Task: structure prediction
Amino acid sequence: MISTHGYVAAQPPLGAPDTGGQVVFVIELSKKLAQLGYRVDIWTRRFEGQPEMERVNENVRIIRVPCGGDDFIPKEILYHRLPQWSENALRYIHRHRLKYRFINSHYWDAGTAGAQLALALGVPHVHTPHSLGIWKERDMRENSEEDAAVLDERFNFGQRIHHERILYRESDLVIATTPIQADMLVSDYDVKPDHLRMIPPGYDDTRFFPVGAASRRALRSDLGYETRVIASLGRLARNKGFDLLVEAFGFVAERDPSVQLRMAINDASSDRGDDSLMNEVLALIEKNGLADRVVISPSVSDEALPDFYRAADVFALSSRYEPFGMTAVEAMACGTPTVMTTHGGLYRAVRFGEHALYADTTDKYEFGVTLLQALKYSRLRERLHRDGAHRVRSLFTWTGIAQQLLAAVEDRSRDTYEVVPLMPGIDFPS
Result:
């Protein structure tokens, strides 16, 4: 596994810059591959005095390779340093006589490094984009007041999309994580369908599951919840839409005086050059008269995360742009009624009103009304609690995801990779 940006660790500091769902994805998938018989090395960048190696378990380890000095480097500009990273990684591999069955790189920065290693080592290169530059650029331009040149300078869209096109063409296999992403890889990047598989992220079903009413009451008491709660969490980044959530909650608060909004986010934006984002969110809270109704807390620890979901009455995924939406899957797995964005891929895997609710999060009235529905109707809430948990358990456990990846890689003896509907109920690209 190669995932070069962010703080990759056995217990990752979620919410730290560039450290979120992708890191969880890589760690959890690696652990499941190990259970299925593989030994897995997770290659990343070494900085800020981190140890060179860290054990995740007996068969999974993290190897950190230096490049570009000891300071954190944002993912948007890290690619400039990756030739040095690849050279150092190859030296380490040859020095320790390591041999690999295949390489799976994650995000485009690691993809450029993975392509170099795969070529040098003569092994297959499987690439998982996680997000797409064209999709993010399109969404940012539609929903940002900044001009295109400013956005490109901040996010390096031109360089990113250029390298993505090369990467997707030269990889042995590209793994899309949602049907929308698979569609865009075919239509916007000209990836051939037989060069593509759709395999979603997963969740740990041994940690995320519903609890009984008595246990939930005890959790709410421990957390000090005295009213109904809409919860959300994630990195502080503009695409996560926390400002949209505050606007929609203003609509909710006018009609329900008892509900609170609780957001677990860091106070520093993970978007390079966007240090004002938290101040914008706070200004919206003040503008809407919600200071006593909105609670912002630091990111939730990994250990406390399942109970954070279980204690909430509704979980909101408010993103402007979201390749998948792992937090929504985890919330549903815990039995929490969930409202998710239509600006992502996950909503196509659920039935509205049965497994979850979804809304256009850029429309505060539509988003607000949908949140109100999830709060107001007890029979709807009970259905979402029961059927939502069942839905994600049937589609998104890590064991099933790891088996799908291995099936794709181990099928290389065939002339083509077939795109087959491994998950009933999710639409696939034609």
Remarks:
- DSSP finds 16 helices and 13 strands in the chain.
- The first strand starts at residue 40 and ends at 46.
- The chain has two domains: 21-203+398-410, 213-395.
- The radius of gyration is 21 Å.
